[in-house]
Amino acid sequence: MSIDRERAMRAVTEFLAAMGVDPEIAELRRTPERVTDLAAEMFAQAGADPADALGVPMEISAGEAEGQAVSVTDVSFRSICPHHLLPFEGRVDVTYSPRRRLAGFSRIVKLVSSTAKRPQLQERLGEQIAEAIMTVLEPRGVTVRIEATHGCVEALEPHGKGTKMVTVCTRGESLN
Length: 176
Fold this sequence. Notes:
Helix content is 34%, strand content 26%. The chain has 176 residues and is α+β, with helices and mostly antiparallel strands. The strands form 2 sheets. Strands 2-3-5-6 form a 4-stranded antiparallel β-sheet. It has a two-stranded antiparallel ribbon with strand order 1-4.
């Protein structure tokens, strides 16, 4: 992803001025640079294919994974809400039932991390993770559960502090 740093920093400076804040006071002089660096990290995977994070899966023999489920749980993440450009963060649990391919556990963690690095809705994050696993690993089924707190809810709602949103995305056969 190509970033126009100078343009982004000018935009932050203009935003501060438009809000009636003097961007030249000592505390704010480096703010445009800091905001740009943070946004570059938080948007680093915008436009990238989430499936790329899974790499080349490991092939397994027929029946080797029969009746088995693979779970990678409590994967922490941070993303950006596209409505307010405030962070939301939490934990992701990914469970899939392999058919003929496995991904290394670290690849599942990388999938969550890289998929989160773009502005998006929590619901879409789960869908993108599930779709990448279905496409690359072709499992019997996958479930992605996300529990997160949202900066916009905490900032805008008087009683929103600590409120958790939970989404569950399933594809393929049920894993129950």
